[in-house]
Amino acid sequence: MTKETEQEQVLQEELEELAELPDEESLEVTAEPEQAVAKEEIAPQKTEKTKEEEAKAKRKKKDDDIVEERFYTIPLQRALIRPPKKRAPRAIQIIKIFAAKHMKLQTKVTEEEETEELPQVLVSQEVNEKVWGRGIEKPPRRIKTRITKDKDGYISVYLAENQ
Predict the structure, then answer these.
(1) What is the DSSP secondary-structure string of the chain?
(2) Which of 18, 50, 114, 135 is the one with CA 20 to 30 A from 89?
(3) For domain 68-159, which architecture applies?
(4) What is the pLDDT of residues 138-155, one digit of tens each?
């Protein structure tokens, strides 16, 4: 059995035990020392469960927002054409241009949409650290990425899992 299934079974058993216990009001009125201790132990467990459920809901919501996801190896050799002190910033620019081009970022604006904010390319901190890892003068020659596009048109660039 995996850890997840074991945890789910433990949660189910705790929920069943909670359902069998009397209401909190009746515990306070007929509280014996043993029942009062049980009440104190139950309260922290409820908060932990709700935190887990909230985290799962956020993950599902985040997954629902993703419209398209692709994996690319982005070549960064063109960044080496620049002077040594401008190579890492140029590599980040190349990543943004590549993502916008391949994920078909809509940059054309009509008169009605001028007031709204345009979709943009967001580079994750992991990708940024990978590019800047060896300093400003020596960015990597290529980088494996996972690029996602959400329903609002925003493009996010993440490191691929195997890097």
Answers:
(1) --HHHHHHHHHHHHHHHHHHSPPHHHHHHT--HHHHHHHHHHHHHHHHHHHHHHHHHHHHHHHHHEEEEEEEEEE-GGGGGS-GGGHHHHHHHHHHHHHHHHTT------TGGGGSPPP-EEE-HHHHHHHHTT-SS---SEEEEEEEEETTS-EEEEE-TT-
(2) 114
(3) Roll (3.10)
(4) 999 999 999 999 988 899
